[in-house]
Amino acid sequence: MWRQGLAWSVLAVDYQRILKALADRERFGQGPLNCQEMASAFGMDVVPARVEALRSKAERLVARGWLAEPVPGRFMLARRVAGPGGGS
């Protein structure tokens, strides 16, 4: 579960990769990503199995407070989550 000051390094690499992609989007003033866009950004084949695996990971991050899902299927960093080093 996310808590203030918790660094991204506590998460598995796949989860960190999702957070980094969404943090980069936020930094450039871009909106949330869906899982097909994430798969493409990661250089993965955009096939149902890959997309659903990413969706499952993103949903876990939402449940644990790291991500927000402002519109069903579109993900962004949760408002209080900071960059890779942690903080708020």
What is the fold named in CATH at topology level?
Arc Repressor Mutant, subunit A
Using the CA coordinates, give the radius of gyration: 12 Å
Which stretches are low in confidence, meaning pLDDT under 50 for 5 or more residues running? none
The overall pLDDT, averaged over residues, is: 88
Structural class: alpha+beta
Task: Write the topology of this structure.
Elements: H1 13-27, E1 33-34, H2 35-41, H3 48-63, E2 67-71, E3 74-77
Antiparallel strand pairs: 1-3, 2-3
Please tell me about this protein's structure.
- The protein is of the alpha+beta class.
- It has one domain (about 10-75): Orthogonal Bundle (Arc Repressor Mutant, subunit A), CATH 1.10.10.
- The protein contains three helices and three strands.
- The protein has helices at about 15-25, 35-40, 50-65; strands spanning about 35, 65-70, 75.
- It has a three-stranded antiparallel sheet with strand order 1-3-2.
- A hairpin with a 2-residue loop joins strand 2 and strand 3.
- Helix 2 packs across helix 3 (about 50-65).
- It is globular and about 35 Å long.
- The two termini are about 15 Å apart.
